[in-house]
Amino acid sequence: MDAVLQPFLSFFKSKPGKFIIAGGLLIVSSEIVYELYLWARKPAKPRQKSCEVFFINRRKLAQPLPSPQEFTYEHINRIISYINRAEKSICLAMYIFTMREISEAVIRAKKERSVVVRVVTCESMVGNEGSHLRDLIAEDIKVQYKYKSEYLMHHKFCLIDTDWYCANCLLEYHTEQYGEPTKNMQHTMFDKAVMSDRAGLLQRFGSSCARCNPSNRPKQAVPRRKKSHDPLPKHGVLIAGSSNWTFPGLTTHWDTVTISSLPELIDPFAAEFQRMWYELNDPLKEHATREPLYKTRRGMEGAHS
């Protein structure tokens, strides 16, 4: 074996052999340096903003210029893009909801990805002929409101993939923020429940959640989306503002939409949604909302009551 290798060893010890080795090392080194240079020049992936504010009658200029349809639907498509990324839950509190495209995205989330959808609305909007709440009800999505309430449920916000408080965490949060309710400070049913029906709150919301017990956080064994999918922030997002989910409300009005993943913004809205979920707990009836004279009938009931 030594006799076979000897000519090669002798060659590489010679000047031509050393030159070839040095040249090879130079080529390999230059390739490594070039790859490192390309890696260093690669633009960093833009960090997702934790809070953005959009004004409805203002558009962002983009290149290439968007089509008229894309230009008009910029804010609508943005909301749909977030709903399309929902994996766990959608909690929607909306006064007026007439956007068919958003309704279809919510229904897809429930049917195709088993997303839990909860909706709180106002009784005054139940009989709205253009409302797509009835389409949600037809898909067995739970929609709640307060029957014959003297106050409007006028909120316009949506929580996507945010944590759900158990009763203990909900009580702790409200006590931290507003203090312990007293006999003279029972403004709402929830305040009264904090005072005298904590068992009912525990029955409604349970005693453990992902907030106080991280092991309760659901784990997905099989990814539902492709690797290229842009996931939502870990603790979800809040979409809130002055806009109803209507075509003019999301295209032309002087309105705003804020989208945020900041816990400081998400937590108050999450707790407030559950307070409404406890109080505005009259489920809608699909057959009633589809009656042509529903609003007239309700007006007559009010007149006779």
TrEMBL record:
<dbReference type="GO" id="GO:0034587">
    <property type="term" value="P:piRNA processing"/>
</dbReference>
<dbReference type="InterPro" id="IPR051406">
    <property type="entry name" value="PLD_domain"/>
</dbReference>
<protein>
    <recommendedName>
        <fullName>Mitochondrial cardiolipin hydrolase</fullName>
    </recommendedName>
</protein>
<comment type="similarity">
    <text>Belongs to the phospholipase D family. MitoPLD/Zucchini subfamily.</text>
</comment>
<feature type="region of interest" description="Disordered">
    <location>
        <begin position="213"/>
        <end position="233"/>
    </location>
</feature>
<dbReference type="GO" id="GO:0005739">
    <property type="term" value="C:mitochondrion"/>
</dbReference>
<feature type="transmembrane region" description="Helical">
    <location>
        <begin position="20"/>
        <end position="40"/>
    </location>
</feature>
<dbReference type="GO" id="GO:0016891">
    <property type="term" value="F:RNA endonuclease activity producing 5'-phosphomonoesters, hydrolytic mechanism"/>
</dbReference>
<dbReference type="GO" id="GO:0016042">
    <property type="term" value="P:lipid catabolic process"/>
</dbReference>
<keyword id="KW-0443">Lipid metabolism</keyword>
<dbReference type="Pfam" id="PF13091">
    <property type="entry name" value="PLDc_2"/>
</dbReference>
<keyword id="KW-0378">Hydrolase</keyword>
<keyword id="KW-0812">Transmembrane</keyword>
<dbReference type="InterPro" id="IPR025202">
    <property type="entry name" value="PLD-like_dom"/>
</dbReference>
<keyword id="KW-0442">Lipid degradation</keyword>
<feature type="domain" description="Phospholipase D-like">
    <location>
        <begin position="79"/>
        <end position="277"/>
    </location>
</feature>
<keyword id="KW-0472">Membrane</keyword>
<keyword id="KW-1133">Transmembrane helix</keyword>
